[in-house]
């Protein structure tokens, strides 16, 4: 590189890549994206190549232009990541870690010494004797797609007609869900942010509250230690989300995502170093930034595509009403239920923060008009 500032290649050009652009600009680091389409959320505002991430030669040609390659989704075939590594490309996280965010069965097996729901990989309904259970596609699921509550043998048999192999898990009657975002560098430096409570509706995260308000100090420590231990155990490089169920004083690992994650969107304003900046630092093996919170509470609300097409006009009302509210728009086509942006609000009074975020989401979706 002529200017000595490296180029980070991100496979994918959705909102996660888009939100990495600001931090990359600030650091002076170059970004190059592999986009599906030049209209993709991040391709609209950043250098990119249009190509298919499932095509080895396309990804190889892309990687040659980058000093380090990372991802913003889990769909890149592991064989492609391994081929890049064999070519000598620096891929972070590496295939050896990344597999645990792609393959839920491999993740369960690899992390068997950590607390998790009881689980089995099954190919026949006769292998399960107690119901209800949770069945999961081993790879490819997201936002609740690929996860089913199964009440009896007949339902499991029906599912196994479509998918020959499923991960079946004990249904954990949890009190609430949290995520711990962790970052780890090749030097082994690692940091966590305050655990976040994630609130889901129909399998989609709608809101996060940080720090998770019901989590005791002791459990918060335990959850952060768990995330750090997992990051170390699998040698992840970059940012990782560890999704956890909380039941009383017990923690159960749900799943891992090895990239900036919806559970960490609050860090953009809510933390000294956002998950997007931290991911860049980590994959570049720079010293990690301070993950402390910049306010007592941070509430994030996901803007889901609804009745309203025009997402600009609502700014007038909402910005006038709540000047502290921060908007992040992904510039994606509005489709019902699709995550098209989020809002962040920081402060001390959690009840007020939650009410304001809920109001903003209802106003943005067209559910209320004042
Ligand atoms: P996705 O890949 O779609 O994010 P997850 O594995 O996170 O799938 O599961 C989606 C949701 O299903 C979780 O947020 C949780 O609410 C529920 N769920 C998943 N596994 C279990 C389980 N073992 N017990 C109870 N609920 C579960």
Query: Could you tell me which ligands this complex binds, including any ions or cofactors?
Result: adenosine-5'-diphosphate
**End-to-end distance:** 52 Å
CATH-defined architecture of the largest domain? 2-Layer Sandwich
Q: Averaged pLDDT, please?
A: 96
In helices, the fraction of residues equals 25-40%
Structure write-up:
This protein is 30% helix and 27% strand. The chain is an alpha+beta fold. The longest helix is centred in the middle third of the chain and has 18 residues, at 217-234. It is globular and about 60 Å long. Bound molecules: adenosine-5'-diphosphate. Residues 117, 134, 136, 141-147, 169-172, 177, 200, 203, 243, 254-255 line the site of adenosine-5'-diphosphate (ADP). Adenosine-5'-diphosphate is lined by residues 117, 134, 136, 141-147, 169-172, 177, 200, 203, 243, 254-255.
